[in-house]
Prior knowledge:
The mean pLDDT is 86. The chain starts with a strand and ends in a 9-residue tail after the last strand. By secondary structure, the chain is an alpha/beta fold. The chain has helices at 16-35, 52-62, 77-87, 106-117, 134-150, 167-174, 183-190, 213-227, 230-260, 267-300; strands spanning 2-10, 37-45, 66-71, 92-95, 121-126, 159-166, 194-199, 307-310. Strands 7-5-6-4-1-2-3-8 form an 8-stranded mixed β-sheet, with helices on both faces. The structure holds uridine-5'-diphosphate and magnesium ion (MG).
Amino acid sequence: MELISIIVPCYNEEETIPIFYNTVSGVSSQMNKKYGVVFEYIFVDDGSSDNTLKIVKSLAENDDRVKYISFSRNFGKEAALLAGLEQASGELTAVMDADLQDPPELLEEMYTAIKNDGFDCAAARRTSRKGEPPVRSFFAKLFYKLINKISNAEITDGARDYRLMKRCVIDAILSMREFNRFSKGIFGWVGFKTKWIEYTHTDRAAGQTKWSFWKLLIYSIDGIVAFSTIPLSIAAFAGILFCFAAFVMILVIIIKTIIWGDPVAGYPSLVCILFLVSGVQMFTIGILGQYISKSYMETKRRPHYIIRETNNNTVKGHP
Ligand code: UDP
Ligand code: MG
């Protein structure tokens, strides 16, 4: 029988896990009847401070398809996804959020796309940003435009981290050992034939989103730094541009002095130029700093996560 692993990163999801489990179990038994597939669940408790782990444990007691990994603290969704992917043993593996914003009904469509239409992976893409604050939508759109222009990983606007993948795709993703993980970029970077399944966005089944605007902004900068080195070139371009401007200004001043003599020096304009140039310098040093800090974290080779508890005795060595 074919095994499908479902990876669910959970951070303080005590309210949503029972609803999630019931809904996905429904889909699972339907697909079992139709296609003879079986599901295994891998819940990754990302250092939750509520009863998430307790709830997952009680599920595991009653259902031996439920596996869990619990981290020693909150390591972030990227680490949780990686841990889940490392433990997944299915021929096919899906990643899904716990809050049912990723409709489990799509799993069947994803499955048939891979089985019948020759795709390596099938991913969900939300078509509308309804219900999202307009400022957030604006910046999200801007981010996708920008990152697709300056990086070689195709990152689809509206793509969720909800996808079903073949073993070969999982292996490719796991071969990317970087510390600064940006899954949307990693999924795009590995390539493979992907079927995009569109759906309308739904609100969380319960609980609160873990993403503030600020967190998203930092996440998007991390994404750009992880998948493009173009910002580094901005520093060089800014340098050339300012040298050129300075050269023109020198010429203008020399010519002005020759024609009209030496008028009173323009102190205010000098201060403005000083501020502008030092601003650009700070900005470009900041860009450099981003890349250096990322390289610094990479060189430390720290583990992506630390497991405190698991019921999976086949836990493979994690990095
Ligand atoms: N999540 C996680 N670790 C974190 C933050 C979030 O494992 O530090 C999980 C969370 O439990 C959920 C998924 O990642 O299953 C997506 O989070 P959320 O629903 O808050 O994000 P949104 O859907 O608003 O993008
Ligand atoms: Mg969500």
